[in-house]
Amino acid sequence: MAKMKTNKGAAKRFKKTASGRFKTKQSHLRHILTKKSSKRKRHLRGKKLAHDADTKLIQRMMPYV
Asked: I need a labelling partner for 11 at 20 to 30 A (CA). Which of 4, 17, 27, 32 fits?
């Protein structure tokens, strides 16, 4: 049987933690930044854990991570 392929889009967006969860960059920091406060933009800079409901889907897209 052939090897499964990793979804490269998902591999660029998610990193697996030691506990098996996935961390990702927060959204809303790409454009239309002038109306957002400095505090809001500063808090969006950090990483965030993906929701538990999405973990199974992400794991299926990256079988060898």
From this structure: 32
User: SS3 of 48, please?
Assistant: strand
Starting at the earlier edge strand, list the strands of the sheet with 47-49: 15-16, 22-25, 47-49
H helices, E strands: number in the chain: 3, 3
Output helix, strand, coil percentages for the chain, rounded to the nearest 5: 35, 15, 50
Lookup: tokens for 12: 């660029």
Tokens describing residue 15:
């990193």
pLDDT tens, position by position, 38-65: 999 999 999 999 999 999 999 999 999 8
Q: Which long-range contacts (CB under 8 A, 24 or more apart) does 51-57 make?
A: 52/21, 54/22, 55/20, 55/21, 55/22
